[in-house]
Amino acid sequence: MSRELRLRIISGIILAAIVLAATWYGGSGFRLLAAVIGLLVYYEWSTISDLHGRDPQGNALGWLGLVLIAGATALSESVYSIEVLAAFVAVTAIMVAIRGKSWWLPGGIFYSGLTAIALAEIRDDDFRGFVLMLFVFATVWATDIFAYFVGRAIGGPKLAPSISPGKTWSGAIGGAIAAVIAGTAVVWSFFSAEDLWIPLLALVLSVCSQIGDLFESFVKRKFGVKDSSHLIPGHGGVMDRVDGLIFACFAAFLLAIVITLTMSGETFSLGGVLLGV
C-alpha cells in the first residue's frame, strides 16, 4: 500500500467518524460542524476564483457575511441566517452590477451560506432530522461509490465529457439505482412506509448529487485547478468531498420549504415534512 493511499484511508476514516458522531449527537455539535463546513467552502470558493485578487473589498464583505451566517447557524438562529444570506447576496450582486466585478462573489456567498444553513436545518434537533440526515448521506455516498465502480466496470457513453471526462451514463444510472436502494433501506429501517415517495425522493437527491459533482468539476476546470484545496490530506479540499452532498442538501431543503408553504397550521421539521412522519 502506497503512502498516499494509506494517508487517504486514514483521513477518510477520521472524517467519517467526525461527521457520523456529530450527526448522532445533533444539536449544537452538528450545527457547529455545518457552520465550519460553510466557512471552509467559502474559503475554497474564494481561493479558486481568486476573489481576493479580483475584488478584495467584495471578498472582505463576503467573509463578513459568511461569518454572520455561520454564527447564526451555530446558534440555531435559522431565520436570521437566511435573512443575512439573502441580504448579502443581494447587496454583493448590486455591487457587482455597478462596479463590474466578479459574479463569483455573490455566487460564493449563496453557495457557501446555503450549505451551512441546509445541513443544519436537515439534521435539526429531533429524531426525524437524524433519520433524514442519514438518508441524505446514504443516497449521496451510494451514488458516489456505485457510480465509480459501475462506470469503470461497464463504461460506455460519457455523461459530460467536456466537464468530467471520467463520468459515464452507466455509472450515473448505477449510482442512482444504488442510492434509491440505500436511501429507502435507511428510512424504512426506522419508519414504516407503503408509498413510493421515499424511493422517488432518493432518486431526486441522487440526480442532484451528481449535478453537484459536475458543477464543482466545471468550476475547477474553468479556473484550471485539480483540487479545491489541500485541507484534507490525501483527499484535496472540503468542496471535493461534499460537492454532491451540497446539491443534495440544497434540493432537500428547498423541497421541504415548498411542501411546507403548501401546508397550513403548525411548523414542521424538515424530517417530518420530507419523510412524511
If you had to describe this structure to a student in words, what would you say it looks like?
There is one protein chain. This protein is mainly alpha-helical. Helix content is 78%, strand content 3%. It has 11 helices and 2 strands. A two-stranded antiparallel sheet has the order 1-2. A hairpin with a 3-residue loop joins strand 1 and strand 2 (164-168). Helix 2 (27-48) packs antiparallel against helix 4. It is globular. Its EC number is 2.7.7.41. It comes from Rhizobium dioscoreae. This is Phosphatidate cytidylyltransferase. Keywords: Cell membrane, Lipid biosynthesis, Lipid metabolism, Membrane, Nucleotidyltransferase, Phospholipid biosynthesis, Phospholipid metabolism, Transferase, Transmembrane, Transmembrane helix.
The parts where pLDDT drops under 50 for at least 5 residues are: none
Number of helices: 11
Could you tell me the number of beta strands? 2
From the N-terminal CA to the C-terminal CA, the straight-line distance is 46 Å
CA-based gyration radius: 19 Å
Query: Largest beta sheet: what is the strand line-up?
Result: 1-2
**How would you spell out the order of helices and strands?**
HHHHHHHEEHHHH
Structural class: mainly alpha
Using the alpha-carbon principal axes, give the shape.
globular
Helix content: over 70%
Classify the oligomer: single chain
Q: Indicate the proportion of strand residues.
A: under 5%
Main sheet properties: 2 strands, antiparallel
Average residue pLDDT: 90
Protein name: Phosphatidate cytidylyltransferase
InterPro entries: PC_trans (IPR000374)
Pathway: Lipid metabolism; Phospholipid metabolism; CDP-diacylglycerol biosynthesis; CDP-diacylglycerol from sn-glycerol 3-phosphate: step 3/3
GO molecular function, one term: nucleotidyltransferase activity
